[in-house]
Amino acid sequence: MIEFINVSKVYANGVTALRDVSLHIGRGEFVFLVGPSGAGKSTLVRLIYREEVATRGIVLVDGLNLGRLRRRDVPFLRRQMGVVFQDFKLLPNRTAYENVAFAMFVTGHTRRQIRRRVPEVLELVGLAHKADALPSELSGGEQQRVAVARAVVNYPKILLADEPTGNLDPETAWGIMELLVEINRRGTTVVVATHAQSIVNALRRRVIRLEGGRVIGDEPQGVYERAI
Questions:
Q1: CATH code for the part of the protein at 1-80+156-228
Q2: What is the C-alpha separation between 110 and 108, in angstroms, rounded?
Q3: Which of 39, 62, 112, 192 is the S-S candidate for 210 at Cβ 3.0 to 4.6 Å?
């Protein structure tokens, strides 16, 4: 599903974010990316949805070599993916319903399809009753739930989440993570970059540990940090 083959990423300012990374994430997996700030987690996520391009090596998504992907084809790649950010990135002047509907509108869905699908995903994330609320009228956790709804409304094969609970209190963070687990249970491949140690340790999913741009650990039922 997702494969990195000897991937390195060096930014224009000379900073090396990833060094010779090789890994494979299978269809339907739930994977945590962990490590200290600057370890390369966010860069790895951005490479998957082609926000960045590898300096060296090969990134494959569903057999497609992203390094050879033409710029005009990037939007078609991203239609297979949903992305959730730490800071939500909602449209401030649109309601929860409209934020989710917009993701369908830009990918060419009809009004009928939008009217049928958007209430379904708002129900999934527990916000059917807040469909008409603006982001400013929602709590941080509710805004993140809208962001998750927007990310999954187009039935993505892959859901990427970059620090999705970073700005949330522990109880709300758990609610978001349980939602991602449910989405994974329905068949979506989920990759989460996170510092949330308690959540990672409790869920015991696959954990890929990065440090200094390198993969230093990969455990099928891992924890955030092993005692030495």
A1: 3.40.50.300
A2: 7
A3: 39
